[in-house]
Amino acid sequence: MSRRGFLGVAAAAVGGIMLAPGIQLIEIAQAAAPGGTGAGANPKVRWGMLIDTTKCASGCTDCVTACNTENGLGGGPDATRPQWIRKVEIKEIKTGRQASAPVMCQHCAEPPCVDVCPTGASFKRADGIVLVDRHICIGCRYCMMACPYKARSFVHEELTAQTPDVPRGKGCVESCTMCVHRIDKGEKTTACAEACTKAGHGAIVFGDLNDAHSEISQRVRAVRSTQLRADLMLDPGVRYQGL
Fold it and tell me: Taking the domains of the chain in order of start, what are their residue ranges?
């Protein structure tokens, strides 16, 4: 057993803590371990995104608004407001060339947030989606420090009017889930990609990177794309075109 797995099981075992009738914390820790698949996860699939920065307009926040609405985010002071996706303006110093791009959890194949989590709350599903189990998260925020993309938020305030499909909790860390609640229902797109398409931008393509016939796979083969901080060799599931 890995050190992280041992700590997660040990922490959960203390006192036989119960979350709900018949459900022990240790059981959830084991289900959320890297070897677990997660509900609806298919190990033959790797979900990902291709973001075309040449089509992403500076000042446009359609994807951010859609994410906030879909996941029940928003409210509270700006300094502590959860942000699962943010727009970043990039400028190349030598040429002056500028680009705008949305940045969210990159859903790495080798996620550092998972490596540092002492309880197993941060985990990667078999289909490549990186998530946080709020029942196990102790709010230590090690994962936030480990993430090179600054893609995770901490919930500081009490939450009201939550979205039923997206359970959240005060004192927990959270981030982009690639709309996993949609995926597990059989839907084929995320809220941000859907909003971008409906607005006529078409800057975000979501799909299965392992499916040779999917739009995203064909685009990745046809155009030059890059991963943010590819030098870290984390193999993110989000790719960027035009950077």
Answer: 3-241
User: If you search the block for the tokens 């995104």, which residue do you land on?
Assistant: 49
Given a contact cutoff of 8 angstroms between Cβ atoms, the answer to whether 179 and 54 are in contact is no
* Contact indicator for 151, 104 with CB cutoff of 8 Å: yes
Q: What tens digit of pLDDT does each residue of 48-89 get? A: 999 999 999 999 999 999 999 999 997 666 767 889 999 999
Give the span between the Cα atoms of 133 and 17, in whole angstroms.
Answer: 16
The answer to whether residues 235 and 109 touch, using CB atoms and an 8 Å cutoff, is: yes
Q: What span, in angstroms and rounded, lies between the C-alpha atoms of 39 and 97?
A: 43
The predicted-structure confidence for 111-152, as pLDDT tens digits, reads as follows 999 999 999 999 999 999 999 999 999 999 999 999 999 999
Listed as own residue / partner, the contacts of 70-75 with beta carbons closer than 8 Å and 24 or more positions apart are: 70/163, 70/166, 70/179, 70/191, 71/163, 71/166, 71/168, 71/177, 71/191, 72/161, 72/162, 72/163, 72/166, 72/168, 75/157
C-alpha angle with apex 115: 118 to 209, nearest 5 degrees?
Answer: 135
State whether CATH 3.30.70.20 applies to domain 3-241: yes
The model's pLDDT over 153-188, given as tens digits with 9 standing for 90+, comes to 999 988 887 888 998 999 999 999 999 999 999 999
DSSP string spanning 26-43? HHHHHHTSTT---TT--T
How far is Cα 70 from Cα 133, in angstroms, rounded to an integer? 19
Token duo for residue 12 = 């959960």
